[in-house]
Amino acid sequence: MPRNRTIYNNQAVYVGPTPATGTHYDAVVQLHRIQSVSHGFELARQDVNQYGQLAAIDRIVLDSPTVNLDFSYLISNGVNESRLGFNIGGSVSAASGLLDGTEDEKNYFVLTAPEGLDAVGDTNTGTHGVYAIGNGFISNYTAEASVGDIPSATVTVEGLNVNYDIGSSGAIPAVNPEDGTNITDIDYELPTAVSGVDGQPTAIAYGDITMSVPNTLGAKMAGEGNAHIQSFSLDIPLSRTPLNRLGSRFAFKKEIDFPVTATMSITANVSDLTTGRLSDYVRACSESTQDLIVVMKECDPLGAGASVMEYTLKNARLDGETFDGSIGPSESVTLTFSSQISAANDTVNGVYMSGAYS
Question: What is the pTM of this model?
Answer without folding.
Answer: 0.93
